[in-house]
Amino acid sequence: MDGTLGEDATMPKGVLPDAPEASVRMSCRNINVFYGDKQAIYDVSLQIADRSVTSLIGPSGCGKSTFLRCLNRVNERYGNVRTEGTINLLGKNIYDPDVSLIELRKSVGMVFQRPNPLPISVYENVVFGLRVHTPRKELSRSVLDDAVEQALREVMLWDDLKDNLKQKATELQLEQQQKLCIARLLPLKPEIILMDEPCSALDVEATSAVEELMLTLSGKFTIVIVTHNMAQARRISDECVFMLLGEIVEHDRTEQLFLSPKNPKTSDYIEGRYG
Fold first, then answer.
1. Sheet strands side by side (includes 92-93)
2. Tens digit of each residue's pLDDT, the chain (275 residues)
3. Residue 236's Cα: distance from chain center in Å?
4. Short-list 154, 159, 158, CA closest to 220
5. Exposed (0-12), middle (13-18) or buried (19+): which is 29, by Cβ within 10 Å?
6. Would the CA dihedral through 242, 112, 187, 157 be positive or negative?
7. Contacts 24+ apart (CB under 8 A), 252-260
8. Residue 8: which residues within 8 A CB-CB, separation 6 or more?
């Protein structure tokens, strides 16, 4: 927590009052995002807890996905986007000019709404990042084989795919494709995994399987997820952030936010009065 807050200061909406400094994996301060002249995010500050699931919720168009994409600078792919403020990871502002985007996106991986496996084999999907980021002389066949098995075991795909590692990844079922997209990040040991509505293209059974996977991974990784599904946010997240019109309205532990929201706007949203 920011030690500059005085006794009468108001706690920032993105900071839990009893969050110890050591438990914060990423700290965002005064984030403003502009698409050309149009402002989409307004002075957002948020501390993201380590090895937990944080859900960003709110009505369509409230800025959830725009803010999520700030966390590994994917917004910059869209052109004419300007971001102000600081986002600190491992003691470094990711918007400093000397930050390598390749290294940043190694540390902060992302999973999108629709599964997007590469149109190559399952095996090569999993080791793709390793091949990009690791000197070739360090990548023996046994190193790659071990990485594939470990990653597929972590996403609960090994038993299903161990005899079909040469299969083209785009031929898998959607649930398997999305799990594979998560597996593709794991050999790089990311600090944070971002998920932008990762279950929106999946059926109920597949959604349940991916949620179970997120809960399992949260013990090892920090996960930030955008979801429009209130029940999902409540099932999987440790902390929940309600956004509206590009601002954080409320941030609290998930059960607290759903059972006893402090802001009437939060209450109206989770009770389905709008959105």
1. 38-49, 24-35, 81-89, 92-93
2. 333 223 333 445 666 655 555 589 999 999 999 999 999 999 999 999 999 999 999 999 999 999 999 999 999 988 889 999 999 999 999 999 999 999 999 999 999 999 999 999 999 999 999 999 999 999 999 999 999 999 999 999 999 999 999 999 999 999 999 999 999 999 999 999 999 999 999 999 999 999 999 999 998 999 999 999 999 999 999 999 999 999 999 999 999 999 999 999 999 999 988 76
3. 13
4. 154
5. middle
6. positive
7. 252/16, 253/16, 254/55, 258/230, 258/234
8. none
Domain ranges of the chain: 21-270
Where residue 165 falls (left for φ over 0; alpha for ψ -120 to 50; beta otherwise) is alpha
Q: Would you state the pLDDT for residue 13?
A: 63
Q: CB count, 10 Å around CB of 149? A: 14
Query: Helix or strand or coil: residue 231?
Result: helix
Which residues, including other chains, have CB under 8 Å from residue 190's CB and lie 6 or more apart?
106, 107, 108, 109, 221
Residue 10: per-residue pLDDT: 43
Kindly report the pTM of this predicted structure: 0.90
3-state helix, strand, coil in the chain (%, to 5): 40, 25, 35
The matching CATH number, chosen from 3.40.50.300, 3.30.70.420, 3.40.1010.20, 3.60.15.10, for 21-270 is: 3.40.50.300
**Cβ neighbourhood burial of 158 (10 Å; 0-12, 13-18, 19+):** middle
Could you tell me where the DSSP H helices lie in the chain?
A: 64-70, 101-107, 122-133, 141-154, 158-161, 174-183, 204-217, 230-236, 254-259, 264-270
